[in-house]
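2 proteins. here.
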Amino acid sequence: MNRFMQIFGQRKVWAIPYAVLMAIFIVVPLLLVCWYSFVDENGFTLRYFEKFFLATDSLNTFIYSIGIAMITTIICILIGYPAAYFMANKQFSTPKVMVMLFILPMWINLLLRTLATVALFDFLDFGLGEGALIFGMVYNFLPFMIYPIYNTLQKMDPSLGEAAKDLGATPFRVFTDVVLPLSMPGVYSGIVMVFMPTISTFAVAELLTMNNVKLFGTVIQENINAGLLNYGSALSLILLIIIGLTSFLGGDDSK
């Protein structure tokens, strides 16, 4: 019994299951993506990356996806920041109720929410296309913009704003000179959590545009489903590198 307690009483032992799961579901898939990206039947190669930059279809889809992601992210900021600000400011709202209202839709599967959006557009007799796609993207990813900003604003020391007011700052100056700069780490986190998934998603684009609009995630899916694992893996790795660079550079800026 004492031997059992000595073994399982150590904290590092309880980390073993998590390490195993991470190795199986994160490390191994990433290694396979890297392997298929650089190795084919002829050995080491970079031709799949060359194919991406030379193939106008994939490159144009990538650029188009960035445009859709930027529009979605900007709209999420314009809607999400005021919502997070009011949620974090008790004099304007009841935060717990508003947080629950934003959480409730997230309890439903992404595909079900997207299908409901399709049904809504059909009921209102609105056509499916780019407009429906952007609406669906904003609807699905808006909470990922609100929560980081809300958490940052909620943890902000209110005495900073009070000190600015005591020094003669107007409410607008307090917001622009104190609240907004201090909330930028939350804004950046929201941008990363909205921008990158928007580029890589494919189900939302297929449902809300009747498969007439392709995003970069759709191109990756089509290549993998067609058995072109090498090219699909190379596209996935390109997207992964962009996500990593964005997170790394943004992390340095937010310190």
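next one coming up
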Amino acid sequence: MGGNIRAGAIGVVLAAALAAGGGLTTVHLMDAGHGAADNTVAKPTPTATGKASAESFAASLTGTPEVAAVPHVAVMPAHKSQATGKPSTAKSLPGSAANSTAPAASQPAGGQPPSQSAAPPPSGSAACAHPQYVTSDPNGMWNQAPYFVANDAWNVSAYKVSQTLYACSSANWYVVATMDNSKGDGAVKTFPNSHRDFDSEPRISSFNSITSTFAESGPGRGIYEDAYDIWLNGIGGDGATEVMIWTDNHGQTPSGSVQGTVTLGGRSYTVWKTTGNYIAFVPSTNFTSASMDLLAFFKWIMSKGWIADSSTLGQVDYGVELVSTNGAPATFSFSNFAVNAS
């Protein structure tokens, strides 16, 4: 697993971005016992275009309440070192609109119209050769509803971190990040991701199928894991359950303790769980692409009595939790991400 320990329980950053007009509301919350509350709020900056786009999109959702018009971003807590037991500081830097670019017709939260300087570096992803959205804003997010692509550099204020996200679509994007673990605390600093929201949070039992596809590639050095981060029974906050399915692990260990093993979709996983509402599936063998039967995971968790049969689905994220790139720029690429539910 490696010597850098990822521990702690659930603290949450929630962000709600107006649907296409550049408005942003960010609320940072930390659970009791994991640091003082951070009540930073980024005030919305709606535009006439954004309001019209939001209303138009909302109107198009009639009859499809499970599709989200407005994103909700929930990310991992401050992690504590197993050696010290002390949580690292988790605060989000205020975003800089000047660092975000996107097409004028679909501006992201905190974004600006595109500029000629927003070209990708030579080490970009072959799957995303011509990005439509570029941001270095820690809170940068591209609205591709019901999907959202987020830079999600949520825990960088106490560390030296640079990260830029380049997106061609919600399915095809990459990040170039630089950070290290010089403090030795094993803290996750960013979780760049693409996610699909289920705005009405339907009951899991109402679905016949919930599947997802993904493909990713990374440098294979540093400390990180590629993973699904799934929210049930709410997105963060009291009563919500966070389910992670790790797919490509490089030196990370989940929170909690081992509960046993299970084979799902032909793969064997070690299951970790905290005394709170955090569950992680860690594969015995890393894999970098797959078609996942997410409903099978949810049903298995229900069979253990860890969530109620009436549990709901709020959000499915896929991305990479980054601890270190050994202090050198590293590229993490993602393609073929989709979530299908019926």
